[in-house]
Amino acid sequence: MAAKNPSSVNQLFKPIIEQVSDIIVITSAGEGPDGKIDPKIVFVNPAFTRMTGYTAHEVIGREAGFLQGSGTDPAACARIRAALQARQPIRAQLLNYAKNGRPYWLDLNIIPLANETGTVTHFAAIERDITTQKAAENALNDLASSDELTGLANRRTFRAELRREVARALRYHQPLALIAVDLDHFKAINDAHGHEVGDAVLIGFSEVARRTLRQIDLIGRMGGEEFDILAPDTNLEDATHLAERLAHELRHSTFLCRDIEVGITASFGVTALAGPDDSADAMLRRSDQALYSAKLAGRDRVHISAGNPPQIESLPS
Q1: How far apart, in whole angstroms, are the C-alpha atoms of residue 266 and residue 251?
Q2: From CA 269, how far away is CA 315, in angstroms rounded?
Q3: What would you measure as the largest C-alpha separation in the chain, in angstroms?
Q4: Of 55, 64, 211, 310, which is the most buried if we count CB atoms within 10 A?
């Protein structure tokens, strides 16, 4: 059945549209001078105002995309726009932003509306708030990808990201560095003060590392007191400086638990992507070998490795 102009909503259905909890947005299906779809809002129901804080008067005539922001997935937006351009229905999940800046997630179901001749003149978007559901999904994802104690990336997540970054760096001929970290004499801390203090030290290290390293760097807990740091767009020299800065911060930090104040140092092994034949596994071996060398040399130091070392059995405690 062909759709009538939605600007004159049938009075019979108006109470339903105004009372439903789902957001309803109707836009035109016109094109801009470049021939690309240029949908403008012609109708919103009260649920839209309750969610976004915008009144109908404030949004009529604007493109619905104005609700998107920095966290909105560009790929999802591109899929929606392609469907609209083809006058096809689409369902997607999208992050939008309210008038006060609050982010919210929507499950969108966009339907083309045609007139008596079959020409699509408008789109109707039925939008359901799934912010709570998304928060629960994100929490589960965090549990699956993060170390429970420190909140850092766990071993599986870190290794997967390392492989992705190696592939990206090789493809685009960009530098990439890897830093292995081992807290010195950590077993002695556990033996002397107990695991509660040991856990406080691990958490303290993660906090020092987060505030010392850059936002683009990824820190992962590999197990026990062993950590790895992935440094994108970073050469061997700069990664060495990065490790030295973290080593310096640790020397001047103490961690308090149950009135017990503990200081730590750490040993570092640094390597960088060596060429087109390099791999994530080879980088892991080199950083471990450099770390092993730093431990043998007396700990609390940074060693580098750019070669192809043999497999090592274990680190000195």
Answers
A1: 8
A2: 12
A3: 84
A4: 64
Distance in angstroms (rounded) separating the CA atoms of residues 158 and 153: 6
Structure tokens at 73: 């997935």
Is there a catalytic annotation at residue 225? yes
Q: Structure pTM?
A: 0.59
- For residue 143, the model assigns a pLDDT of 65
Sheet containing 266-272: give its strands across: 218-223, 226-232, 176-183, 266-272, 302-304
CATH topology of domain 146-304: Alpha-Beta Plaits (3.30.70)
CATH 3.30.450.20 fits 14-136, yes or no: yes
113: β partners: 122
Residues in the chain: 317
Q: Where are the domains of the chain?
A: 14-136, 146-304
Mean pLDDT of the residues in the chain = 89
Closest to 6 (Cα-Cα) out of 95, 98, 112? 112
Catalytic residue among 225, 226, 244, 261: 225
